[in-house]
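Hmm, how's this folded?
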Amino acid sequence: MSQRIRFLVHGRVQGVNFRSFTQKEATKLSVTGWCRNTDNEKVEGEAQGSPEAIKQFLKAIDEGPRHASVVKLDKEDRELVEGETHFEVRR
């Protein structure tokens, strides 16, 4: 069974390779979805995978890459997206 979540990451998460880090972690965990920078210096996205993979994914992005400083991670459930095959960084 899969689940899909929307996430919003607060803190110093732009200009520190956060989106690339997020994509790498998602790919490693077979999580699909997307992420992008917001206009208010956050990173948002959606992720889909097994409950265990989503749990590990959220743990990874809550820590972030070395130069990031995550202060808050919001998440909410979303409807599954059929046919999604990878995790992409959107611009």
Q: What stands out?
A: The chain has a mean pLDDT of 97. Helices lie at 18-28, 51-63. The radius of gyration is 12 Å.
